[in-house]
Amino acid sequence: MSQTKVKKAVLAYSGGLDTSIILKWLQTTYGCEVVTFTADLGQGEELEPARKKALLLGIKPENIFIEDLREEFVRDYVFPMFRANAVYEGQYLLGTSIARPLIAKKQIEIAEKVGADAVSHGATGKGNDQVRFELGYYALKPDITIIAPWREWDLRSREQLIAFAEQHQIPIAKDKRGEAPFSVDANLLHASSEGKVLEDPALEVPDYVYSRTIDPEKAPDTPTVISIDFERGDAVAIDGVKMSPATLLAKLNTLGRDNGIGRLDLVENRFVGMKSRGMYETPGGTILLAAHRAIESITLDRGAAHLKDELMPKYAELVYNGFWFAPEREMLQAAIDQSQQFVTGRVRLKLYKGNVITVGRESKYSLYDQDLVTFEEGAVAYDHRDAAGFIKLNALRLRTLGQRKKKLGL
Questions:
Q1: How far apart are the C-alpha atoms of 386 and 384, rounded to whole Å?
Q2: Checking CA distances to 306, which of 49, 124, 143, 249 falls within 20 to 30 Å?
């Protein structure tokens, strides 16, 4: 038994078997009062059963918190990340990563409200989420006690977990008695699947794993054409219809699902040091990223655009590793947000069999000048003869290097 004295702990609680076991384990191991927090991040599950389960396990009604965070999640976390075009290791749109700081923030807020001296989560000791949660906790409340059961208890197998549940009269659904073929994490931005049937990267992902997208080969034979309006880097409307952030992302998810968009089979490098194979479905986010880059292509200056692309991998790594509340992420965010002041306009897209194809973009702030780029001669502020001096100046060091090679006979 742990020697840490805890009076009250706020548990990130899904209502599932694992977190229900953790709830009871906290009560029996630490002898503490438990407060449950269940976040609605658009995972698509009914959350009232979590309340009933908590009540069944002896949690007082005033100690059960269930919050609808969908709008806050998209507005304050997903959208700022997409302003940065953040993609981890060239492919991953960070759907799980970006949800963790919001959950951590709410847990700490609840801990302050109810006078809890500890917080707890159900992340394992091998994954990234333990790091993301706990970096968030410490950043927001440095003196908080953190309880990570998977790093403390001796329940090492599914059989032991089931036995613990039975011993403490924790209800077990029939489909939970066997070991799940893979684990799933979902929110409004994405669904991720990993483990078991997905652990061998040489094997194709089975069809039954996919939950957010139809097979691109079975998608409609006719493209779906849509437009997305942006204001200061954030999507605000689809086909001219204004929507809230969460409503807009949900609509993009539907469009992406119906056209087989957003599947990703990825082997990534976890922060803790191992490689992991996962399958991600991010239908709306995949469309949103393509649209955002398209509107930036006509509204961002080359220097700003290229600097953003240089900063993006660092930003994405910070989000992936759990440093959302770190000063370096906030510094990058300030620079990124400054770049978005003229990223306003409309993008037209074709969605077709897993593909997002940009077919048009327009903005009142466009830097695209047709008179400058046209092959036709016209009264433009560009003299072709200026290019000769420009090229010679840029070639000066190359010519110098060439002369040295010639002189040395290289």
A1: 5
A2: 249
